[in-house]
Amino acid sequence: MGAEIFRDAWGIPHLRAGGVRELARAQGRVTARDRAWQLEVERHRAQGTSASFLGPEALPWDRFARRCLLADTARRCFAALEESDPETADWVRAYVDGVNEGLPEGASEEFARTGLAPGRWEPWTPLAVWLSTHILFAGFPAKLWREHVAGHLGPDAVALFATDGPGTAGSNGWLVAGERTVTGRAVIAGDPHRFIEDPGVYQQIHLSCPEFDVVGLAVPGVPGIAHFGHTGTVAWAITNAMADYQDLYRERLRRTGAGVEALGPDGVWHRAARHTETIEVAGEEPAEVEVIETDRGPVVIGGPEGLDGGDPADPSGIPVAISLRHPPRVTAELGFGALLPLLRARRVADVDRALDAWVEPVNVVQAADTEGGLLHRVAGRVPVRAAANGTRLVPAWEPGHAWRGWHETPRAGLTDGVAVMANQRGPAAPLGVEFAPPHRADRIAELLAGKDRWSAADMPAIHTDTHLASAAPLLDRIEALDGLTPRAAALRDRLLRWDRRMDAGSTDAAAYAAVRTALVRRLAAHPAFAALAVPPAYPEVFQPWLFLPTRVGYALEHLLRAPELYGVDRTAEVRAAVEEVAAGEAPGTWGDTHRLAPWRALPGAGYDEPGLSGDHDCVLCTSAVPGVTDRAARGPAARYVWDLARREDSGWVVPFGACGVPGSPHHRDQLPLWLRGDLVPVVTDFTRLHKETDV
């Protein structure tokens, strides 16, 4: 028996096959049919070839991908997988075979607009896509920011700006044990927060064969279901653990007649691997990039002559480059060996064993099964090394910064039958440096404590909660203001009456956001922080982590609560912000400016950007960038509820739809539900599905 493709009313693919390999081939083929353009964009991004059809705007990423050796690392990891786990390697090959079969069937208007023809996937390509998707997940560029702050304001200033940074991605997740549900069986729910992309970064899918029957959210381009799945008897979900597992090293490099050498911690110059590559750029001349790898890892910033802008970036005046060390490059392991065991899992213990093989990214995992088993643990590889490695750039030429094995991944239990994970300092605390503020986690726990018994149907009310606890420090300072003009006093009184909910239709939420924006801009422009306003001459791909208004916006709580702020008169700045907003045109509703702004590889395939409820620290985490824009590029990339009593009572939704082809009836049909907080029912009965084809 080969494989069959079915669809439900929302166009979600349901695949049934006679064997594991046939099922993987069908998954690759249906993904290519539904997401051909998305798959090809991701393949090219992983290879550093996207500028060849997207033009010069894609060049900074391509330079980074080449210098970071993403494709080469994927090749290494796949070769190692073939040696250590040939079954999984063959399963990945089957998926790739399906992708290559399906790509010619999935061509869409984007290919015609760019002149791009679907290319060929290699067996290692899914691993490259995974690496490319997650290489910035741990936010290692935040170390560049910490170094920047410490260099200008001193090390004590770093904590003032410590919060969930602009490039990291988080999630909400919660597990309610059977003792706290109406059915007596556990419920798992949550929503991963990532950059919202069109097509979406998650694919709803159902995979069925004699060995397993699993529904879940797959990453297009990667076989199986890694992050969020339900096998009928066990379900699992993850959030970003906010662990620190990537290091940046300052490197001293020199050119020789034979190439490039790097100064090691033993005081000896060692040969570094070096070659040049050419990046094709649509509409412009090709660009050349020098790729260097030291014993620490690939050089991602600068070279033997220092930074690209000519600044050596070292107080001594000696040119310095920066290399990246991360687990897959070191170990040639990515964690794909966990994927098949996850699909085959029947109990929590099976999920637990599978995750022992996980590498990157490092996640907090929750799982539950129909027999009452529960799991709350961290999964992934975090190196043991000096504490300094986690907080700043460390000198490659000094001893004491080498990796010394791997941390054991922590485990945690439940409190009053509940476990909440929202990127806060939870079980992963020993493994990280910066974590998300506790507001989302505290609010979810507060809501779950509000009643004794919960059902799967209750969970969307938590998904969509808009209470903004992080408003307190600014509102406290506003409350203390006196001597305001009449209009400003009226605005102050109005904000103090506000229910602190960031609802799209709220004019009070809009007024609060306007004051917050005005304050962030004033603080970012203050002379006390002038040195931070000029970032180092690092490549463009790192600039979001170094943009001062963004950093001030996300760290506003710390900046307002610190005992002293480098001589900044915060009362005067808050007063000026309130007066500024009061004197201007009255803000409309929060949804007028807080609109969904998804990333698309090609601009122009647009639609009216809908207004959104929520904010960065709400459970409904639709992230604006205070002081920069109210538009939200990040938010819930999916929502799910896994019911362990009856899988058919589970639900899920994605921001747009199951199909990535513009004009398809299932391209954006889930958007209205996503905006309302509704879920699409999970269907697993093949008699209720429409058969599309055999493959």
SSE layout and pairing:
Layout: E1 3-7, E2 13-17, H1 20-47, H2 51-54, H3 59-67, H4 70-84, H5 86-102, H6 109-114, H7 125-134, H8 142-153, E3 170-176, E4 187-195, E5 203-209, E6 212-218, E7 228-230, E8 234-240, E9 247-251, E10 253-256, E11 259-263, E12 269-279, E13 287-293, E14 299-301, E15 321-325, H9 327-331, H10 339-343, H11 348-355, E16 363-369, E17 374-379, H12 387-391, E18 394-395, E19 418-421, H13 439-448, H14 460-463, H15 472-479, H16 486-497, H17 507-524, H18 548-554, H19 556-561, H20 570-583, H21 590-593, E20 623-625, E21 629-636, E22 639-643, E23 651-653, H22 671-676, E24 680-681, E25 690-694
Parallel strand pairs: 2-5, 9-18
Antiparallel strand pairs: 1-2, 1-25, 3-4, 3-19, 4-21, 4-22, 5-6, 6-7, 7-8, 8-16, 9-15, 10-11, 11-12, 12-13, 14-15, 16-17, 20-21, 22-23, 23-24
Helix pairs in contact: 1-5, 1-7, 4-5, 4-7, 16-20, 17-18, 17-20
Pfam family, one: Penicil_amidase
Keywords: Hydrolase, Zymogen
Protein name: Penicillin amidase
